[in-house]
Amino acid sequence: QVQLVESGGGSVQSGGSLSLSCTGSGFIFSHAVMSWYRQAPGKERELVAGNVGVTTTYADSVKGRFTYSRDNAKNTVSLQMNSLKPEDTAVYYCYAYVSQRGTWGQGTQVTVSS
Fold it and tell me: Which of 11, 30, 34, 59 has the most C-beta neighbours closer than 10 Å?
């Protein structure tokens, strides 16, 4: 059974930093496409950063501020978020796509105050 457990998040002032982590189990982590999404109140869920092979894609709104990384040996994917803005406030979700199935983490709240 694929499971994703997220950690990190919280509240920070504008300009601050936070780090999110997601640990996967129940699947071959190195085979999975691992991504971070977010959903702000009243908005659709959107891709923040994702990795396919050696290519990492970022949403335009986070380029230069967020850094995606993964450690296949530790079954972990991380998102370092710097220079946070109030518009980054959202629930952040880890997503794994493996064996033609997608699984979401439980989500973690990030709140940025001005």
Answer: 34
- Per-residue pLDDT of 86-99, as tens digits, reads 999 999 999 999 99
Which residues have a Cβ under 8 Å from the Cβ of 53 and sit 6 or more positions away?
none
pLDDT of the residue at 51: 83
Question: Span 12-30, mean pLDDT?
Answer: 97
pLDDT band at 75 (very low <50, low <70, confident <90, very high): very high
Question: Are the C-beta atoms of residues 49 and 57 closer than 8 Å to each other?
Answer: yes
* 12-17, long-range: CB < 8 A, 24+ apart: 12/84, 12/110, 12/111, 12/112, 12/113, 13/112, 13/113, 13/114, 14/84, 14/85, 14/86, 14/112, 14/113, 14/114, 15/83, 15/84, 16/84, 16/112, 17/80, 17/81, 17/82, 17/83, 17/84
